[in-house]
Amino acid sequence: MNWKTILINFINGYNYFIIFYFLVLNIIYVIVLLLSIKGLYYYLKRSQYEGYSDLLSSSFLPGISILVPCYNEENTIVDNVKSLLHLEYNDTEIIVINDGSTDQSLEHLKEEFNLHEIDRVYKKQIETQAINDIYLSATIPNLVVIDKENGGKADALNAGVNIAEYDLVTAIDADSILETDSLLKVVIPFIENPKEVVATGGIVRIANNSKVDRGFMEEPKLPKADLPRFQVVEYLRAFLTSRVGWGEINSLLIVSGAFGVFKKDIVAQVGGYTAKTIGEDMELIIKIHRYLREEEQDYQIPLVSDATCWTQGPSDFKSFVGQRKRWQRGLMDSIINHWKLLFNPNYGTVGMFAFPYYVIFEMFGPLLEFLGYCSIGAAYFLGILNPSFVLIFFLLAVLYGVFISTSAIGVEAYAEQRYDSILDYIRLFLYGVLENFGYRQLNTIIRAFSLIGYTPGSNEWGTIDKGKFDNDNSDVEL
Amino acid sequence: MIELVINGVYILAIISAMIFFILLAKIIYDKVEDYRNEKLIAELKNKINHYLSGGKVDISPQISAKKKRLLEGILINYSKQVRGETKKQLQELAEKTGVIDFKVQHLVNSNQWWKKSEAAYMLGELGSDRAIDALLDFLEAENSDIRYQSALAIVKISGSEYLELAITKLLELDVYPRDTILRLIEEVDEEIYEKMQPLLRAEEIEKRIIALRSLGLKQDFRLLQWIKEYLKSEDEDLVKACLQAAYQLGDIGDDSYFQLLLTTKNNSSFQVRANLAQVLEKFRTEQSRLELQELMTDSHWKVRYTAAESLLKHGEKGVLALSQQLHSSDQFAQDMAWQILHQEITFDSLLNNEELDNYQQLIDNISQYLEMTNKEGVKCELEDYLN
């Protein structure tokens, strides 16, 4: 057997593997999609008799500490804090953690909220970088600002957990905006099942070009630029047809760092957010799963599908690439740190389904897909390519992508209908088709190269310039 | 293989196209419905307003199910905004227009648990007595949502009348968190002591706790005898409930009661001790402050923290007591006292209030502390104040 035959056999074998891989992946997608639809259906039915207004006025609504980690967010931090002050929730404490910003973030906060330095007791339950100063506002009694040495987002969040007064803490990115009733909705699972619910997450959506007024989402709009539009479809797919489904089998491995609520005790018990990773949100959730399964405790981590947080998606190519690299590296950090969970029945559905899915399809998936494209090239040069099969298979893959995206948009239209215009939905569908021709491949390549060039143990902040929320619905300033 | 893939392509293309068109149709349908409903809602609102201003009922009970749903939505929205006579008028209108019967039918006949739960919720919001009998039947429902929504609706409609029954039925199912049941009791405006007595006497600790907590929130002083009795219990949750109720009742000027509360000071549970520290906030006496100063050196931070906050609420004497803690041998007590005093100095101009009885002593305590801890910045601020 010469090298060419070996190569041909290898490529043929790999192609069969890819077909099998594609089949399994898509079966999982369909199962998770069905679970999501079931979860959303019952959630929507139950929300009709939830009695939000009764809950809001109840003295039994638990207090919550809102942690806002901030690193060089001078453009958005003041608006963000203002929007948090107007949430429909009675008992909150807002803790902004300035993680050694090199811009004017702290100065803007000091000026806007009349901050005064206070000597405050700092319970160091979780180790963090040194705290420089703690400020209280003369105008807003429930606002605390911590100024600390730079240590990364996880370190900033841990400082917030250390100082938080309430039993529930939520981490909200400084460049994100919560809908006014989102916090209440995401806390409801803690009220309904206070013993078992240890964390909840909400839905994150792309806010570029939406009408935002002084920190409030006035009118959601589709972004004008292509890149954020693709992200709208991608976020809908990720949250409404994937994470909701994983949540249904209590195997949610990511509660987005942009909007999640946790019991403070459990965060402290697992040692807080892990500083030496940039995927601190996923890392924390996996640590919680792992800890509670090892302790054999009953627990739940549900996703609340209509608790919405709006965020700015990167709208330039460089920021986008940076964001995706960070996500992939964060994913890999967590998977490597918790390798023990893989196919381990002691960790239940997390060990047997969710974790293996993330390892095989999310971590290695992009590389396998990238190699699939390479093998098509190699097959062409070796003269063994069946163009009609490749074309039809590609079409199948595209249509599958379209099917999943359309389902996500359909679920959105059925459950939420945040966009007013019918044209917006037609555009979304169009971008759900178009993303399969370039955007998806771009994502694959970025993530595949991140996998190859992976180096563990970073705690840096992302330097994605997401711009400022705009009040006149014009393009995002960059 | 190719044929299989081609079939897959066809199927997916058809499914995707179908989803797209169904989605489009759904959005268009919703928009058209919204537009139509707007007109219907405006028409119904006019008729409701006409009725409320003394006119006749101009809505037939024979209206379509869709119109009834819109009507019930409007009536519920109105009900949430009004009280008294107007609310009664709305309930009458709901009965006369058949909305109540419509919802009772949903509750009784629907096969879906969520439809039954929703119907019970709506009946509670509409508030008509006519629904009570049907709702009482569903206190036995196996589904926890139906049972809770029925109990809530009964309480909203009839106040305390069936309260004990509702709580007992909810506790039978053992799935509702305590606060959820307390939230239900919160809906009752009238006094509930008589209804709660059987629960206070019950064997089950959970029933006693719920009765203590709810009566505490109502600040019903008849609760005192029960607090005195159950404070001696070995059950931690029951003792905590007693202290929570005691916090609501405040200082009743009974020293033996105060001394009894203090027996929990050495309880092994830090939560009980923290609850005690909170209760002591309400007892503005010298002994209470001494106890709080002692609790500020407790082994658990939560107790120390609560004690410091309670001291602050004792006014100027509490502030003075806190300033004495600045020289405590316990570092945390010192820090905690300083945190609160620093906050008061910064925001409440404590040091500008020279009329305080022990002003000089307070200033001396703070000055010595600043000297001792080398807090130069604050020391300068203090000197500026004093000059």
Automatic annotation (TrEMBL), chain A:
Chain segments annotated as transmembrane: 16-37, 380-403
Segments forming domain Glycosyltransferase 2-like: 65-211
InterPro entries: Glyco_trans_2-like, Nucleotide-diphossugar_trans
Assigned keywords, A-Z: Glycosyltransferase, Membrane, Transferase, Transmembrane, Transmembrane helix
GO function terms (MF aspect): glycosyltransferase activity
CDD domains (UniProt xref): CESA_like
PANTHER family per record: POLY-BETA-1,6-N-ACETYL-D-GLUCOSAMINE SYNTHASE
Record family assignment: Belongs to the glycosyltransferase 2 family.
Protein name: Cellulose synthase/poly-beta-1,6-N-acetylglucosamine synthase-like glycosyltransferase
Organism whose genome encodes this protein: Halanaerobacter jeridensis
TrEMBL record, chain B:
InterPro entries attached to this UniProt entry: ARM-like, ARM-type_fold, PBS_lyase_HEAT
Keyword Transmembrane helix: yes
Single GO MF annotation: oxidoreductase activity
Name this polypeptide is given: HEAT repeat protein
Transmembrane feature ranges: 6-29
Keyword annotations of the record: Membrane, Transmembrane, Transmembrane helix
